[in-house]
Each structure stands twice: as C-alpha cells, then as structure tokens.
Write a structure and sequence with these properties.
Strand content: 15-25%
Radius of gyration: 32 Å
Helix content: 40-55%
Structural class: alpha+beta
Largest sheet: 7 strands, mixed
Number of strands: 26
Distance between the termini: 105 Å
Amino acid sequence: MTIGHRTQLESIEDSLTWMQSDMSATPIGKNSTFTLGHRSISLTISACAAALTAFFFVRWLPSMPYAVSDQFDISAFYAINEAVARHVVFGRDFIYTFGPLGMVYSGFYHPATDPLMLTASTLVAIGLCAGFVTLVWPQRIYLLLLLPIVVAESVTPDAVLLALPLLLLLVVFRLSAPRENRLHVPLRRSSCLCVAVLVCAVGILPSIKGTFLSLAAVEGGLAVLMAFVARRRAFAFGIMLFAIASLCISWVAAGQPLAALPRFFWAQEQIIIGYSQAQSMHGSFDQLLYWGIPAAVITVILYSYIVRHNGFSGFIVFLGFLFFSFVAFKEGFVRQDSNHVIISGETFLFMALFLSALLESLPAIAVAVVAFVGWAAVEGSMFSTVLARIETKARGAAQGIITRVEFPDALPVAFARTSAANRAAYPLPSVKGTVDLYPVNLAALFAAGMKWDGRPVIQSFAAYTPTLEAVNAQHLISNDAPANVFFAIDPIDGHLPALDDALSWPLLLSRYSIVGIHGNYLQMVHSAHPGPVRYDGRVVRIDVRLNKWIDVPSDGGFLWARIDMRPTVLGNLVLAAFKLPHVSIELRFKDGRTGRYRYIPELGRAGFLLSPAVGSTVGFGLVASGQDKSAEVQQLRLVAPEVGLWPRRVRLSIRKMDISPQPRVRGLFLTEPSSPARILTSGKISLSEDCSLDAIDGRPHRSLMEPIVSNSDRVNITGWTAPVAQRGIGPDETWFELKSANGEQRYYRAGTMSRPDVLAYFKQPKMKEPGFSAELDLLGLSGTQQLTIYSTHDNEAYRCPARALLQLSP
C-alpha cells in the first residue's frame, strides 16, 4: 500500500471515528450506526449546500455603477473599486465604512476588481457552509438544505457577513465541549479543515466592511478564550494564526501595504464612534417591538438550555450571542429606514438556523417559530415574497454564470456603456490636473476619466467627527491638494449644509477660485496665490439655553461659530446603547426667512460657517462673492428635548472670519442688468395676449396692487409668456423691466424654462419655449420697483399685462 493510499485510508478512518463518536454521544444516535451510505448522503448534502450557497451569495451578475446624484452608496461603491484599481491606500488616502474588499458587499462590477470580488465572495460562501457543516454534523445534517435558502432570502449581504463570527463561536463551542457532553465534536482533520476555512472567511470581514471588525474581534476572541479554557491551546493559536493570516493576505491581495492596516483600524474607530449621532434616523416604535420581543425570547431560551447546562463555556456563548444581537440591533435601528431595518430582521433567520443545531428538539422548534415570526413581522414579508426572492436570485445567478462562460466580453462592454451613460447624465468640462468632487457623486468624475485626487473621507456627509473633518481639511493644504474641485451643496437627512466638511469651507473659499457652473456643480480652480483666512482675535461667547432664541451679533461679513454641546452622562449611555433624539437648529435671516435644519452637535464643536448661511450651491457661490446680505443670520435657536440627555445651557463662541471675496462670481449665478433690445426702447410695444407671472421667490403671484416686500438683494421670477400663443407664436426673447419711482429703469434678459403644460394647453407642441425663469440681481436697488415683463418676436415687442410691485429694503 502506498503512502497516498495509507493517508487517504487514515483520513476516512478519522472521519468515521468522528461521526461515530458524535452519534454515540447524543441521544439521537445511541441506537444507530453511521454507515458509509449515510456518510455518502451527508457528504452529498454538504457539497450541494456549499454549491448552492455560493450560487446565491456570489454576485455572478454584478451591478453596474450608474451615477445617481441622491444615491451616495452607489458612488461610494464605485469609488471603492476605483481606489483598489488605482492602488489608493485605505485608511490613509481613502477613509470609509468599507475596506478594499468592499466589492464583496456591493456586488458592483469593475474590470480591475471583478476577479478579486469573485474569489473573496466564494471564500465567504464556502466558509459559511464549512462552519455550518461542523455545527450540524451528523445529527441534523438536513439543516444544511436550509442554509442556501436563508442566504437567498438575505436582501443585503449584512446578515450573512454578520452571521460568520457568531457561527465561529458556536463551532468552537462544540469542538471544545467535554467528551461526555451531547454536543461534543472531536477535533479531527476534517473538522479542523472546516474551521480553518471558516476562520479565513471571518478574517477577511474587516477588509470587506471595516465596521465588522468589532464583531469579528469579539466573537473570535471569545472563541479563542473558550478553546484555551478547554485546554486546546494549539487549536486556539491556530484560530488566531489563520484569522490574522487571512486578513493580511486579503489586504495585500487588494494591493494594500501591510503598514497601512493600523491606520485603517484607527479610521474605523472614528467612523464607528460618530455614526450613531450623525447618521441616525428614527422610525416606527412598533418595529422595535417586533425585533426586541422575539430577540428577548430567543435569548431566554438560549440561556435556559445552553448556559445552565454548559458552565463557563455556555456563558461565553451567551455573551457572544448578546453581543451579536446588540450589533444586529444597532445595524438595523440606528439608521431606521427600510434598507437597514431589514438587516436586523434577517439575522433572525441565522439565529434560528444556528441554534436549531445546538438545542434539543422542542426548544429548537420554539426558537425557529419565534425567529420566523420576528423576521416576518420586522420585514413584513409574505410567503409569495419569499419565493420571489429565491427565484429572482436564482435567475440572476444563472444568467450571470451563463454570461461569464458564453459571453466573457459582455460585462466589460456593459461597464463601458454605463460610463458613457454617466458622462451624458453628468457632463463635466475637461480639466487639466487632478480633481475632487463634493459632496458625494464621484461616479461623474470616474466616468469622465479624470485624474481623481480625492480627500481621504471620500464623501462629505461621512466626515462626521472633528477628526475626520480635520483630515479632509489637511488634504486641501497639503502638496496633494487637487488642482480642480467640482463643488455642490447636497446635504442628507435635512442636515445643516454648513456642517458637511465644515472645516474645508474656509480653505475652499480662500484657496480656490470659482470659474464656472456646470449643472449643479461649481467649477473651482486652485489659486496660484491663495489668500489667507484671517480670524478676529475677539471671540464673542454666549450661553445658549436650549429651545430659546438668541440674537447673533453681526455687522456683516463671515461669522465662524463653535457650539460646545455634549451629551450628559445619561445621554452618553443612551448614545452608546442606541441613539439620541435629533437636535435641530433654527435660523432667522435678515430678509425675514426662517430655516430649520438637523444639527449634529459633534460637528458643531469643531466649528462651522454660521453667517452668511448657505443652503444651496448657488448660495455658496454668492457667499464667495462677498455680496449676499439675504443669507445673514440674525437669530438662532437649538431645539432638543429637555429630558436630561443634553445640558440645558451650552456655550456658543463666535468670531469674525475674513476671506478675500470673489466679486465676479456673482454674475455666474444671477441675471445682471444689461442693455435692452432696441425694440423695447422704441415705444412701439403691443399688448401680449398670453402670459403669466406665476411666482416671485416661490410665492404665487396673485395681486397686481400689493407690493411684495423683500429684504434680499436678489429675486427669483418664474412664469411664461408668448406674443400669440393661440397661433403658436412663442417668444424670441423674454425681458424684465424694473422701474423705480424716479423713473430709473433696469432691464434683465430672462432664461428659458421648459413648460410642456403650456404647450399642451394651447395645443402648440412646436411653439418656441414660452417658459421663463430668472434670478435678478438687485444689488444697489431700494424702494419701490415696478416689474414689467416683455417678449419679443420678429423685431416686435409685447408687454405682459401681469405686473408686480417690489418693495426693497436699503
């Protein structure tokens, strides 16, 4: 007999010994014999389960990164792939929730990262199945058939990835159990191999999503502790070795230097500690009950049947399960929207599957029923939806495999088409040098093939601690600062716009020149001789009482504010366990408007531009021009529940900030006075038959007699006009006239605005576009101004009978 045959025979004997010992150690198998036929069936089930798990989990048909301005996740996933392809260092030059294997989570395609995605995803799927084989073998091998179904039911990868560390802990619990324990599984080559694959899958979790590090470290640490307590030291060291090795190998395989790992972990700490305050979202209290009650029942059952009968090892399992439940709860309910709540619901399926392998029949059935009810209640799924998900994933996976085998060029072609569609949807001008884009939609840059030089925290809303903000600000004054910036205002969740990358705003205003506007993006170019940002040495400090208005001291110019608002001891405990009620900030402006925004106290402590307040991309440009009196803040109020979570009084510090203005920028955003068309001053003006002055500053215009009072230095006017709409005669141009009481006149040429409703009403689809929209520059005007609207056609002028009076403050 050869050495190879001897080794193979020994392996079979080891496996049979393991299986027989399992069967003899449990009531289920006392009177049974484990034949080779049974073993063949079990191995067949295991192989099928592994294949189906990989079939459903791996993104054989990946998503294409379509650029959508309000879908920040899509842009981030695109950026992860681009960062890996361009060898950007994670944790140093790229700071985000996800690591360099983030494509495993997102399933987004990129030609340079697709092989890495397939390899890492397959490892996760096989590791999950290998661990579960060890957990159920041999008594409840049939549970393996449910694993692919549970994976297929997972809408997002979160529940699958969260389940891996818990599975590792439970597997080690069985392998460390005493021989006389009914759950005992002996350490054999087969079981060690399965555990090794599972540990490798757990080890790469931080490379997929950095915030999984805490769960992997806690569950893995408890597993190692359990193995040490059971005097299986070699096994414990093996777990640590394989986990560390797999993490390092995955990190290097993604093109990352090992020296960057500590900084990556530091960045994840910042992301985790700021998430609950900055990204929280409140939802239905019923959903909390739907998740909390079943989770509590399952925890009680676990304690009764595992902890009470397994001593210290059972207590370790209980601690691990509690931490897993806590993480699952936070994943779903800190940001309580439909996409996140579903994560918590799906963890019930894995709880039921894993615990059914450990518990006796009656408690296992009880856990399964409670978990299924909890999942259905949280998610609201019906049986038809369950089947539809399996069918959808199966169709997608089958189509992806067929595409990859028969049409290997299909995915690269689809990616190229997506890039072309992104360029068409978000056209940006060609620029020289490096580029960054604020706040989120980086897909527009990638599609244009620009030389990306992004700030470390790649999306502005994600820089939600003072430290992360400072990292981005430092990038703008470093030698790696981008030569060009495309900038827009687009806060999420109603946040105060000035809080997004707040520390970078003074640097953008002083070190970059605004040279154009393209869609919703300002085009900014790094100045050859950037001006300084000067702060007044005098700081005004005000004690602010929550929910009370205070006056903001101002005589014009920039006001930089810091608000030292920290949770109380009770508030910190609530924040650590769950989340705090939202804080709002209300602002009253000089022009009489009032705005209410969500306020993030952690960011407010670092400082932000309080006045002039910026609410839009155009507003930022006007602030840069140094001429925007309408945005000056006169009063503010912090709104928060007074229930002991926040101190009743907080300290507001204000000081003036001086930045050199860019006065020419104003003309990029506002319609400035210009010389009128000659026909308008000829006196030969007819009355237009068809026109409408729809709104002034968003307010419907109904009266010709009542003056519209405005404290602003600009006014927005919308409507439509046509010389003779009934005959399909639309305007060549539309003009506004502002006439003061002393007869002084100003003319403004309006821009066109699509009005398909007007074309449909007059049944003139080919008529020239009648809609108009303009933001008139009123700088230097005061008193009563009469607004008149004109249209021109074939060198003739027509006056709209709708007029308005504007009462402007000095």
